[in-house]
Amino acid sequence: MQFLIAGGIALLAAMLMVGLWVTSQIREAVIRNSAGTTALYVDSVIAPLLPDMRKNEALSDSVKRALDETLDQGALGKKLVSFNLWDRGGKILYSKDPRLIGQVFEPSANLLRAFGGDVFAEFDRLDDNERQQKGTTSRLLEIYNPVREPWSGDVVAVSEFYEVADDFQKTLNAALWSSWLVVGGATAAALAMLSGIVLRGSRTIHRQRLALEAKIAELQELLSQNSKLRHRVQRASRRATAINERYLRRIGADLHDGPAQLVALAALRVDSLHLVDPAAPSKDRKAEIADIHHTLDEAMREIRAICNGLVLPQIETAAVGDILRLAVTEHQRRTASSVSLTLPARLPELGTSEKISIYRLAQEGLNNAWRHANGKDQAVNASMTGGKLQIEVSDGGPGFDPASSEGLGLAGLRERIESIGGRFEASSSSKGTRLTVTLSIEEQQ
Questions:
Q1: Same structural domain, 369 and 437
Q2: Positive or negative, the Cα torsion across 20, 22, 27, 32?
Q3: 20 within some domain
Q4: In a 3-state reduction of DSSP, which class is residue 106?
Q5: Alpha-carbon gap, residue 187 to 179, rounded angstroms
C-alpha cells in the first residue's frame, strides 16, 4: 500500500512531466511543420508576383490586384483571414485590409525574428479584441514568413498572415490525445509491473516474517525449556549432593550399628577371663573362642550385605526384563521370601542410566517391602501403555504417609528417576504401598 501510494504519486508526477514535455514538443513540431508547409505554399504563389523589393519601396496597383485575386482564390483563400507584407522599417507594403497599406508600426519581436530568416508561427495566441478585429471567432495560426530575393537569398520582406486552423486544431488534439494515451498506458503498465514485483516481494517478506516469528517463538520455547531444565538440573544436583551425603551417613551408621558393634563385641570377648586366665577350663575357653568366631562371622555377613547393596551387577548389556528378574532373584535369595513378577511379551531397549534406575527401584522397593511389610504380597509389574514404560513395586503391608515420611531411599529414587526425565510416584494406604515409575520411550530412544 505504501508503494502504491508513493509510487503512484511519483509515477503520476513523472507521467505529467513527460506528458507535458511530449505534448509541447508535438505541439511545436506540428505548428512548425504546418507553418513551414503554408509558408512554402505562400512563397510559391506570392513571391513570383512581387517586384524587386530592393528597388521598389511600394507595390504598384497591378501587383496589389494580382495579390488580391491570388489570396482570395483556392484553398488558401478560404483559410486566410489576414495578410500583411512588411518591409524592414515596419511599413506595411500590402494588406488585405486596404486601410493598413502604407502605415508604419514598431516592428514586433516576431517580425524581427522573421527578418532574421526564421519562419515563426504561433497558434491561438489572440485575445477577444484581436479576434474581433480579424472578424472571426475561429482558432487562428499566425505565421511570419521571410520573403527572399531569388538570386541572392536575402530577406527583403516578411509576409504576415493569419490562417483559420480548425482542422489544424483537430489534428493537434488527436496527436496530443494519442501522446497522452501512450504516456498514460506506459505509466500504468510500469506501475502495474512494479506493483506486481513489490506485491510478490511483500508476500515473500510476509511469509518469511511469519516463518521467522514461528522460529523465534520455537526458539523462545526451547530457551524456556532449557532454562527450566537447567534450574531442574541445578536443583537435582543440589539434592543429589545432599542425598549422597545422607547415603554416606547411612552407610556409616549401618557399619557402626552393625559390623562395628559385632567387631567391638568380639574384641571385648578376646579379653575375657576364659581366654586370659590360664586356670580357666579348656571347655570354657573353646566355647568363648567359638562365640568370638560366630560374632566375627556375623559381622562379615553384614559387611557383605552392605557391599552387595552398594555394588551393581553387570546390567549394561542386559535387557530390561532380565534386570527385573535379577533384582527379584537376588531379593528372594537374600530374604528367603517370594516375589510375584509380571512382564509383558516385549520390553523396549533402554540406556544404561535407565537400566540402573530400574534396578535400584526394584531393589529399594523390595527392601522396603521386606523391612516394613515383612515381605507380604511382594510384587513387581512392568507394562507398556501409550508409548510409556511403567514399572510398579508393591506390597501388602500396613503402609505409611509418603508426604511426611519419605525416607532416604525413596528420595534418592525420586531424584534418580526425575534426572532421566521419568516420573516417580509413591502411594501408600492401610492395604499396602505402591512405587510407580513411568518412562517415555520416545524420549529415551
A1: yes
A2: positive
A3: yes
A4: coil
A5: 12
Report how far apart the first and last C-alpha atoms of the chain are (Å, whole number): 51
Closest among 187, 141, 144 to 164, alpha carbons compared: 141
Task: Give me the DSSP letters along 238-279.
Answer: HHHHHHHHHHHHHHHHHHHHTHHHHHHHHHHHHTSHHHH-TT
User: Measured between alpha carbons, how far is 157 from 141 in angstroms, rounded to an integer?
Assistant: 20
Can you give the CATH number for the domain in which 33 is found? 3.30.450.20
Helices 61-71 and 2-46 meet at what angle, rounded to 10?
A: 140
Query: Which residues, listed in sequence order, are joined to residue 83 by a DSSP beta bridge?
Result: 161
In this structure, the answer to whether residues 170 and 278 fall within a common structural domain is: no
Same domain, yes or no: 303 and 441: no
Selection from 19-33, 37-51, 128-142, 209-223 with the highest mean pLDDT: 209-223
- Collapsing DSSP to helix, strand or coil, 347 comes out as coil
Output phi, psi for 263, to 5 deg: -65, -40
Q: Which domain holds residue 15?
A: 2-182
Of 243, 278, 311, which closes a domain?
Answer: 311
Query: 269: which residues sit within 8 A by CB, 6+ positions away?
Result: 275, 288, 291, 292, 295
**Could you tell me the pTM of the whole model?**
0.42
CB 378 within 8 A of CB 367: no
- Regarding whether 86 and 123 lie in a shared domain, the answer is yes
Q: How many domains does the chain have?
A: 3
Strand ranges across the sheet with 432-440: 340-342, 379-385, 388-395, 432-440, 423-429
Question: Residue range 84-88: average pLDDT?
Answer: 85
Q: For the stretch 18-48, what's the b/e string if a residue is b when 16 or more beta carbons lie within 10 angstroms of its beta carbon?
A: ebeebbeeeeeebbeebbeebbeebbeebee
91-149: per-residue pLDDT in tens?
A: 888 888 888 888 888 888 888 888 888 888 887 655 555 555 555 666 787 888 888 87
Exposed (0-12), middle (13-18) or buried (19+): which is 316, by Cβ within 10 Å?
A: exposed
